[in-house]
Write a structure and sequence with these properties.
The structure is a homodimer of 225-residue chains. Chain A is α/β, with parallel strands linked by helices. The first copy, chain A, contains 8 helices and 11 strands. In chain A, helix 2 runs parallel beside helix 3 and helix 6 crosses helix 8. Chains A and B meet through helix 4 and helix 5 of A and helix 4 and helix 5 of B. Chain A binds a DNA duplex (30 and 30 nucleotides) through helix 8.
Chain lengths: 225, 225
DNA sequence: GCGGCGCGTCAAGAACACGTCAAGATTCGC
DNA sequence: GCGAATCTTGACGTGTTCTTGACGCGCCGC
């Protein structure tokens, strides 16, 4: 779950924000001043921070700098004062966004989504490790049991990708052919036979007795780890 | 130089922005409507886009979506209308920031800096040292094994930058062409062949047996240290 | 036991992708 | 406006990959 650190000394606003954010299924952590905010962030690093200016103890810029010293988590600054110099200072200190009070809740939520979207570009980290090889789909890298790289041709990658994405699930001939070669090749099952054989020769310890690329006669193939 | 695409049908504002941005040493490209903006971006991909809502031809959301279809370049939206629904729509479409007119120039500049800062997270891993060269992405400096400087052309830099940012990851032909030349050049794989060859001639000890710029036949290229 | 069917294997030709080179076109600085 | 650097474009040789057809084996129903 996404954790949001909320820093504000206005109890009412804090309450309103907490309710709204919790309803959107964010995990909310609150602090009423800068010092406890920094301590809290260090202990349980948030995925995003919302910081009100005009805290009782620390300057907003100080808090932002304190966070930016060790984390790149998105920071959204709230403020009642609409001074342009303050905006520039806090943005240049490392804040990602600056919202002037009063603001609409929907707008703030949209800005939160935008900031979080930027922060997590690649969530699909798919690495499959077996006794005989390591498969990194994102980096398109395959290494054998002794650490040597294994080279696959484009169609072999494509084929393996489809099978691995449907791990442990049976993928029919038609679906496989459609996804790799296109809808016009739905019936060319010999393509599958040839390329599956090549794949097995590269990743199976005993290509004749496949452990990972299983044939389901008459139906399709299945990848299993 | 950092290139900013400026889309607005208000000639006065366009002029004022262009002057201010140029003074800050940004390269400015302008368009007066959404269609030419998208075409322009496709031909010369910008590092940041500033888009005014209320363009004569296309909806702001459409323009943002058109860009987001192929690039993650930061997008800042300007608008006179202060409707919250519009803000939410365009932010959720993929815009990074939303500034309401009238705005202070200093604030906009600060928001531009913030957006650009986020877009280049590779500043912390900017120096790559290998047995054959030292590469400093931030300073755009490349030195050979004996300490002599190596000169790269703009496209060579761009190409190397994309590959190094995705270090150890395989970057497909399409992605590479899109990021360096723009989506209109998706199929010009010979560009890659030529420029990769030039790059290798400059940084590989044995250009015919590349150690760092690995080609994955039929798929793309990979930088590895 | 027999024949059909699906599967794995193999090999050869066609098609494709890559690296390389060189000549025009374009851009940029002076 | 000129010259140099850079980028685009086309062509060619080489190596790899894909397609295509043929063959044998094992399983299953008959």
């Amino acid at each position: 779950m996404t954790r949001i650190l909320l820093v504000d000394d206005d109890t009412h606003l804090l309450r309103a924000l907490r309710i709204n954010l919790t309803a959107r299924r964010y995990e909310v952590v609150t602090a009423a001043d800068g010092t406890t905010a920094l301590a809290l962030a260090a202990r349980t690093p948030p995925d995003l921070a919302i910081i009100d200016l005009g805290l009782p103890d620390l300057d907003g810029v100080t808090v932002v700098e304190g966070l930016r010293g060790w984390t790149q988590t998105p920071i959204i600054v709230l403020s009642a004062r609409d001074s342009e110099a303050a905006k520039v200072a806090v943005l240049d200190a490392g804040a990602d966004d600056y919202v002037t009070k009063p603001f609409g809740m929907d707008e703030l939520l949209a800005r939160i989504r935008a900031a979080l979207r930027r922060a997590t570009p690649g969530t699909d980290i798919a690495v499959i490790t077996t006794a005989d090889f390591v498969l990194d789909l994102a980096a398109k890298r395959l290494t054998g049991s002794s650490g040597e790289p294994v080279r696959l041709t484009p169609t072999e990658w494509h084929l393996l990708e489809v099978l691995v994405r449907n791990r442990d699930k049976l993928v029919g001939h038609r679906q496989l052919l459609q996804e790799v070669w296109g809808p016009a090749y739905e019936t060319e099952t010999n393509y599958l036979r040839v390329h599956l054989a090549n794949l097995r020769r590269k990743i199976e310890p005993q290509p004749a007795r496949p452990r990972y690329l299983i044939t389901e006669p008459g139906i399709g193939y299945r990848f299993t780890a």
